[in-house]
């Protein structure tokens, strides 16, 4: 007997159920991807957790990721991918025109930054832009505050307008109750290696699920103890996705995410004398005036420019790749057509 209640801990809602209605008539089994392993994946279904076969990576259904809602055929092969409500996508470093989807259908992203050293504000800003662009709600979590040399809450809050910023310690339990109280739906953890993501995930889950490791004392960096993105139900409701540490975090088509991350600068820019002010010495620039008075750090404007420039470059590169891909596809079609005409004896040069 099919028991859809078994899917509730994995994020099953009335909205998701409505998306599945047309597929259920075709005897498809609803499932959520909880872990990817090359050509196979673990999925949560109304019949429990099962092992399913994934489509080829170059097929229309390629690129499945943890958090996706899919439909299975009777042979436990993935046949349909439901539209993603949100998707955390970072720019691809390879020659592909599409980005890499880190997690799908995420409601809240916990941006983990270790507080036992100098807090990397630039990385927080980058992850905020990535999260805002995905459609999820970011929460900045300063981890390891029991080992912090100074209180970095205020400086983290200054770079995260519109986002909640909390300080926690998985070792002592400090702040965990407050964090758990505001989690809802599917939660993903993002951050670099050694940021304490897996330790925090285990604390929120109430058990040692994910492997953890020590960080180097010299540079506070850790090894990749998490090698898979994996979804687990939270005891307080909702689900959690732990992810491997991110070294490179490329932005791609993240204009809206950057604007929301730097909403303080965007708001100041509305008071500039010129509508196209570049904040680079123009008279009547409200942004430079804020820097002069100390209400806006120069580092903040430099970071804004850096991310905006990178995003524009990546977007242009993707456009060039798409054009090149279309040209290659057109050449293949043209070559095949010419061959067909030659075989018929009707092609003229």
UniProtKB/TrEMBL annotation:
List keywords of the entry alphabetically.
Cytoplasm, GTP-binding, Hydrolase, Metal-binding, Nucleotide-binding, Ribosome biogenesis, RNA-binding, rRNA-binding, Zinc
Instruction: Give residues annotated as binding Zn(2+).
Output: 272, 277, 279, 285
Main EC class the enzyme belongs to: hydrolase
Q: Which Gene3D superfamilies does the entry link to?
A: P-loop containing nucleotide triphosphate hydrolases, Probable gtpase engc, domain 3
Q: What is its main location?
A: cytoplasm
Q: GO molecular function of the protein, one example?
A: GTP binding
Report the EC code(s) recorded for this entry.
3.6.1.-
Where does the CP-type G domain start and stop, copy by copy?
A: 96-249
Q: Where is the EngC GTPase domain?
A: 104-247
Which Gene Ontology terms describe the biological processes this protein takes part in? ribosomal small subunit biogenesis
Q: Which residues are listed for GTP binding in this entry?
A: 143-146, 191-199
Organism domain of life: Bacteria
- Protein localization: Cytoplasm
Tell me a GO cellular component: cytoplasm
**Cofactor note (record):** Binds 1 zinc ion per subunit.
Q: Which cofactor does it need?
A: Zn(2+)
Role of this protein: One of several proteins that assist in the late maturation steps of the functional core of the 30S ribosomal subunit. Helps release RbfA from mature subunits. May play a role in the assembly of ribosomal proteins into the subunit. Circularly permuted GTPase that catalyzes slow GTP hydrolysis, GTPase activity is stimulated by the 30S ribosomal subunit.
The entry sums up its family as follows: Belongs to the TRAFAC class YlqF/YawG GTPase family. RsgA subfamily.
Q: How does it assemble?
A: Monomer. Associates with 30S ribosomal subunit, binds 16S rRNA.
Protein name listed in UniProt? Small ribosomal subunit biogenesis GTPase RsgA
């Amino acid at each position: 007997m099919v028991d859809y209640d078994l899917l509730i801990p994995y994020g099953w809602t009335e909205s998701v159920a409505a998306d599945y209605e047309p597929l259920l008539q075709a005897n498809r089994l609803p499932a959520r991807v909880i872990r990817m392993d090359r050509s196979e994946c673990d999925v949560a279904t109304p019949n429990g957790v099962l092992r399913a076969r994934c489509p080829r990576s170059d097929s229309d259904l390629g690129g499945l990721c943890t958090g996706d809602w899919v439909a299975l055929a009777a042979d436990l092969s993935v046949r349909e991918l439901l539209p993603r409500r949100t998707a955390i996508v970072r720019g691809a470093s390879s020659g592909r025109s599409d980005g890499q989807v880190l997690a799908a259908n995420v409601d809240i992203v916990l941006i983990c930054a270790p507080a036992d050293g100098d807090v990397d504000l630039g990385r927080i800003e980058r992850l905020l832009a990535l999260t805002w662009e995905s459609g999820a709600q970011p929460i900045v979590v300063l981890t390891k505050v029991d080992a912090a040399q100074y209180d970095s809450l205020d400086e983290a809050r200054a770079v995260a307008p519109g986002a909640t910023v909390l300080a926690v310690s998985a070792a002592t339990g400090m702040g965990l109750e407050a964090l758990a109280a505001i989690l809802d739906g599917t939660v993903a953890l993002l951050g670099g290696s050694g940021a304490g993501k897996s330790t925090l995930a285990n604390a929120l889950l109430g058990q040692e699920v994910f492997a953890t490791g020590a960080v180097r004392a010299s540079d506070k960096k850790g090894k990749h103890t998490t090698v898979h993105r994996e979804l687990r139900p939270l005891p307080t409701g909702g689900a959690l996705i732990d992810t491997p540490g991110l070294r490179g975090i490329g932005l791609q088509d993240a204009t809206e995410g950057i604007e929301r991350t730097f909403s303080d600068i965007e708001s100041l820019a509305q008071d500039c004398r010129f509508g196209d002010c570049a904040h680079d010495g123009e008279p009547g620039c409200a942004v430079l005036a804020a820097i002069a008075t100390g209400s806006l750090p120069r580092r903040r404007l430099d970071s804004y420019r850096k991310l905006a420039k990178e995003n524009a470059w990546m977007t242009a590169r993707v456009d060039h790749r798409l054009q090149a891909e279309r040209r290659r596809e057109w050449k293949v079609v043209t070559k095949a057509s010419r061959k067909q005409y030659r075989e018929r004896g009707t092609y003229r040069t």
